[in-house]
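User: I'm putting together notes for a lab meeting next week and I want to include a structural view of one of the chains we've been expressing. I don't have a solved structure, so I'd like a prediction I can at least talk through. The sequence is below, exactly as it appears in our construct file.
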Amino acid sequence: MTETFYEVLRRQGISRRSFLKFCSLTAASLGLGPEFVSTMANALETKPRTPVLWLHGLECTCCSEAFIRSAHPLASDVILSMISLDYDDTIMAAAGHQAEAIVDEIIEKYAGNYILACEGNPPLNEDGMYCIIGGKPYLDQLKKAASNCKAIISWGSCASWGCVQAARPNPTQAVPIHKVIYDKPIIKVPGCPPIPEVMTAIITYIATFEKLPELDRQGRPKMFYSQRIHDKCYRRPHFDAGQFVEQWDDESARKGYCLYKMGCKGPTTYNACSTTRWYGGTSFPIQSGHGCIGCSEDGFWDNGSFYNRLTNINQFGVEANADEIGLATAGVVGAAVAAHAAVSAVKRARTKGGNE
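Assistant: Thanks for the context. Below is the predicted structure for the 356-residue chain, given as structure tokens.
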């Protein structure tokens, strides 16, 4: 029988106090209240680790690179203790026939109980021959592994939407996972790559509660994809004030003004970048001085240049846009200066008249 998460930790010499601290921190990272700590602890003490098959199709491996850099929970805790990552051809020791035999074993041994994690997407053209795994099309491996799985996680924009592989003209006919698998629940975790802590948190949630997180209408976990980056961006006050960067490295850029006019897609992109941020909360693209490119949204690769700004984004009422606000701000300032000058002139005239 597969060990529980707690049994693995105890075997590694981890104290119960440290285990409960882990549960508290993990619950907080998932946005859960203190009342869920005991629920999480009980689940990790009693439930066997969840078997996971992690497949790779057409992709650049950036999702795996992100996953192993998670700060909390640590990827090592997730991989070695929380789940049973039985197959991942990028980080596993086995190769060739030995590796492929593991896929068959998990499909049969844990039928209906394992999670299928997909990084990258399948090409349909030429019967899937543009992506070969173990001498066979990845398309075949995907369908076989999905046949007995409990649920599928589509890691990144490649598996969720198609990403660059499916960009026009898409000669390989690459498609997202949900265009091939129709009869299994699919959790989409888009981003190029997704935020590391988002990836490990979703795995933790499934392992703890034995159910999928609440999803939005596009199949994304609401806990991380329910708000636009723009909603919680620390530069939002500059947007509302009509203060925008007009050119790279201008004075407004040095002051940290809003990057909307430089093509920032934050107002139309749903992700947790502006709150969770990246790599232990260090930073995110906008904080580094570059606008959001909308990498977690469907079709972002075909939505024009990353530096083409969005149109018709209104603020201060439905009739105002960024240009109008900027001009209005300048107009208000100019009018105020003119009014001040007029009042000063009147005062000077009255003072002069009184002295004569």
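A couple of points you could mention at the meeting. The longest helix spans residues 322-355. The chain is about 40% helix and 10% strand.

User: Perfect, that's what I needed.
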